[in-house]
Protein 1
Amino acid sequence: MSQEFRHCPECGDDRLFEQHHADPGSCPDSPDGYCPEWACAGCGAALLEGFVLYRAAPGQVGAVASRVA
């Protein structure tokens, strides 16, 4: 298991994060062997590393206001 300190958005501070699929090929979601999933050891908040996020253009996001979680 890999570990490193990162900023946790839930805790609001730098915390220890763990990567449970650190061995190459052990992550079921990543065929290339690199697992982007990290979890805060304090609160369990999840981070995905290595993704570039873009804002969705108007019209691409459906009627979110009518959905209830």
Protein 2
Amino acid sequence: MPPDVPPEADLDPEDWPAFRAQAHAMLDDILDHVAGVRARPVWQAPPARLPASLAAGVPETPEPLADIHADFLRDVAPYAVGNLHPRFMGWVHGAGTVVGAVAEMLAAGLNANLGGRWQAPIELERQVAGWMAELTGLPRTSSGLFVTGASMANFVAVLVARTHALGAGSRTDGVAASGARLVAYASDAVHNCVPRAMDMAGLGSGALRAVSTDAEGRMDLPAAAAAIAADRAAGLEPFLLVGTAGGVDFGAVDDLGALADLAAREGLHFHVDGAFGALGVMSPELKPLFAGMERADSIAMDFHKWGQAPYDAGFVLVRDPQKHMAAFASSAAYLGRAERGLAAGSPWPCDLGPDLSRGFRALKVWFTLRAYGTRRLGATMLQTCRLARRLAERIDAEPELERLAPVPLNIVCFRYRTEEDSDRLNAELVTLLQESGAAAPSTTRIGGRLAIRAAIVGHRTRAEDVDALVDAVLGLGRRLAPGLRSPQA
């Protein structure tokens, strides 16, 4: 240690061999945690003691790394949300992979800031963007950006469309300066992050028209065209049409080709919220469901859903990189560009989104795509859809159960039949399933009725897990509602 550096100012290990041994033990423990996931409950509520034990003051002095690790194993690891588990079916969460976990460790070790500069990690992110453009059918020249998740990806797309509609001057003068009143269109089943994006973009969530859907959960095209015409007649300015590739309630996929036609006729930015569904293009069997997505002006997707990358790994792809940059690029002396040196490599990711400080999210996706390949990942996606169809068949064969929605992808919505207060019983049934650790579905509403929602997303789920969910629902339902209503009633 140089004499001018006090020991407490140096944060590297004093004993590298001891640290290496502890680090290897930590890696082994988390791999054991993943490998043994099937033997544990899907979810466990954190113990009552936990809030108090975590209420200690800010640590001022060093603690042994082994002690901190022991606290993690005791107080944190057993009580996570549970999406590693094969019977986690509550929300559209991927299960992650150990490949992605190790890649995340490598990214943390590099500690690279991907806001800008001339560096290999940004080139790797551009490579993944090129792969996504190729897979979805957009031009390889499209721009792509890793973000936290599809909520931010959809927000970026709204800002790109808004800036294009109002002109670059709106970034300086504000959205009200032009006097235009922008309106957008999506199905009434669109994810809540889209109206929130309209809100955060300064346009107001009320400026998003919720277009009715058909029996398959797809946007009603004549209703969308009529809404656009009515808004134009009222002096409003339609600017954005949002298609859904994998609806939040039961996985519906809009007729993206017909929406692309409508957007082209009306001069609208056509965006696809493909938070989990867009990656289905990796499966040859599923790809036809997303026909028309290749005509989108932008696409939002999540690699941490069907792509099975560890959280978080959202992504937005924009067809026209100049249109993308126009919404975000700005000049600042400390962000000056050059032809050589660290200031080379323009445009930078900070020209494509709101973040200047950005982690190396692309690395775990790059590893995942290379380690498994799109064919294997696509086969995993197709398998989740097959399991969903198996679940639907089991439900349809059980007089005590009722399916409430179609199953276009990998989400099944159903309920236990009862004579009275069915919503309350089914909600209690889901809570008991979660608390027991046997399975973890969630709830939603279909046609005003509360449904048990099973989203089969993780790659570890098997047929036995689907059957176990049905058996558990039947067992609990019989216990909670002994007076079963006849299915003919």
